[in-house]
Write a structure and sequence with these properties.
Length: about 170
């Protein structure tokens, strides 16, 4: 359910999340899906009772999963500067809709607490953040392989698999 899907990243456990379709299996019978792997991340320094904490309540979990709904487009709600707080993901997930056998949206929240260094003055260099989204179980082998599988040696030596091998293998 949506309320159970809100999660925190745990770098000590190398945590990742997989979203799978149990109705679609691959060639070994496992469900296909996607795995999301976090990178550098943190929790906000702002208190949940602060103005920004109330308006951007989504930032207190790294992962949220909701049913796909056209009206739910922005994690803080449509107009975060015009409401007192509590809109967006925290409000939507209170409905605790089921996530089984339905289209879902996976919201991954990442950020950093920037404490300036001497090297950041007068022009701050780039600070890189990100995550990886990897397909899991869709392919029989790496799609990056552009070489056909090798043929058994015996098929190459005489071209007829029913005849005995003459190549010594």
């Amino acid at each position: 359910s949506e309320s159970k899907a809100a999660r925190l990243l745990d770098l000590g456990k190398s945590r990742y999340w997989k979203i799978v379709n149990p109705n679609k299996t691959n060639h070994v019978g496992q469900p296909v899906g996607y795995k999301i792997l976090g990178n550098v991340n943190c929790l906000p320094l702002a208190s949940p009772d602060s103005v920004i904490g109330k308006r951007a309540g989504f930032m207190y979990s790294h992962l949220w999963v909701t049913q796909n709904c056209e009206a739910e487009r922005y994690p803080a709600g449509d107009y975060p500067f015009q409401h007192e707080g509590g809109d967006g993901l925290p409000r939507w997930t209170q409905a605790d809709r089921s996530l089984e056998n339905t289209d879902v949206v996976m919201w991954y929240v990442f950020g950093l607490n920037h404490i300036p260094r001497i090297e950041d003055w007068p022009v701050m260099p780039v600070e890189r953040l990100g995550f990886m989204l990897k397909p899991v179980g869709f392919f029989k082998r790496s799609p990056a392989m552009d070489v056909a599988p090798s043929m058994p040696t015996c098929l190459r030596c005489n071209g007829n698999p029913s005849e005995p091998c003459t190549c010594g293998h």
